Amino acid sequence: MDAVVLAAGEGKRLHPLTLTRPKPMIPVAGKPILAWVLDGLKKAGVKKAVVVVGYRREIIEGYFGSSYDGVTLEYVVQKKQTGTGDAVARAEGRVKGDFLVVNGDVIVDSSDVKAFAAVKGGDAALCVSEVQDPSRFGVVEVVGGRIKSLVEKPERPKSNLVNAGLYRFNEDVFKRLSSVGTSPRGEIELTDAVRDIIKDGDVKAYRLVNKPLEVGLPWDMLNVNEKLMKDQTFQVSKKAELEEHATLKGPVSVGEGTRIRSGVYVEGPVLIGKNCDLGPNCYIRPYTVIGDKCRVGNAVEIKNSIIMNHTHVGHLSYVGDSVIGEHCNFGAGTKVANLRFDDGEVHVEIQGKMMGSGRRKLGCIMGDYVKTGINVSIMPGRCIYPHATVEAGSVVKHNITAQEPQN
């Protein structure tokens, strides 16, 4: 079976992280979201995936190339994001027979993908998922295992089952997409084609057993990261160097070429990449991921955070409940606060609006190539945009969106 993977989006609500990478390339539990999606497709028996790319396409194509773990990859380009229907239409002539359509930024459990791919019959099939507030989604009505209706964000939902964004079509869908026209927001919607099939055909429903994992906002990365790490396989490379008095407790992975110096205490689950240098005397706490070629200095503590490749966390620093981009450099004594004095919910400014994170503890969301001077303090829930330089001794109380004075 073939698959079409929708991966052209930017993900503006994930700024500053998606200013330098497309949303499907956001890393969780040690690899990009898109890699997790392709893993699920492979386990479902998919041999070929047509990946629809657009925003910063060169990053996806450069990372995956022409194949991924035995799955052949082809790329088609959607230069402007003019709807999911338009994206799928660009794969016409590249898939044969029945094929799957999946979102490249939503991780569906591989057991569900495999079971869905095995659903037989009908002119199409759609995954549905149960939610508490269906009015925010495309609500489906299911009767006898068939989709009876699909309504986008209804005021009075007929059910609590919603479109989970995983489809099975045949080549007939391309004809339907060419005739559905544009929606009120000027896009060609894939759901319009689904409704067209419902009118004169048979659309099977598959109810997901597991809740899909989606990174819609920056702090979702920490939630998804934790859930994925609980099912990881951990191993310490034989080519890693562990000095005497370095302690690894619980499930810990260490990549080849990485050096763990004396006095380092790692409390799993923790993933540490290749060619890193940790310590001496630092503390790495559970649900932390440290990418490749990172340096973590003396007396550093990192807790429940994602540290991307090539980042240096200088000595005497603290990073908690944070997402730190690539090629960042922390000056000595940089502290990322993750808890408000009043113990309340941490709020984050997203696209000019303050949003509640639902988290009591949340640190910093830092883009790529950020530098902090010594003794910088970053308040909870602050975003720092790529290439910013934070002056020594600064207290970051607001988002930093450009290189500007911080005092």
Question: Can you give keywords for this protein?
Answer:
7 helices; 8-stranded parallel beta sheet; 407 residues; Spore Coat Polysaccharide Biosynthesis Protein SpsA, Chain A; UDP N-Acetylglucosamine Acyltransferase, domain 1; alpha/beta; 15% helix; 2 domains
How much of the residues is beta strand, in percent?
25-35%
Parts with pLDDT < 50 across at least 5 consecutive residues: none
Question: Could you report the average pLDDT, rounded to the nearest whole number?
Answer: 95
**Number of self-contained structural domains:** 2
Structural class label: alpha/beta
Class of the largest domain, according to the CATH hierarchy? Alpha Beta
The shape is: globular
How helical, in percent, are the residues? Answer: 10-25%
Tally the helices: 7
CATH architecture of the largest domain: Alpha-Beta Complex
> How are the strands of the largest sheet arranged?
5-6-4-1-7-12-9-13
Radius of gyration: 23 Å
Question: In a nutshell, what does this entry contain?
Answer:
It contains 7 helices and 39 strands.
Your description of this structure?
The chain is of the alpha/beta class and 407 residues long. It has 2 domains: 2-216, Spore Coat Polysaccharide Biosynthesis Protein SpsA, Chain A (Alpha-Beta Complex); 228-396, UDP N-Acetylglucosamine Acyltransferase, domain 1, CATH 2.160.10. 15% of the residues lie in helices and 32% in strands. It has an 8-stranded mixed β-sheet with strand order 5-6-4-1-7-12-9-13. Strands 15-18-21-24-27-30-35-38 form an 8-stranded parallel β-sheet, with no helix packed on it. The chain is globular and about 65 Å long. It starts with a strand and ends in an 11-residue tail after the last strand.
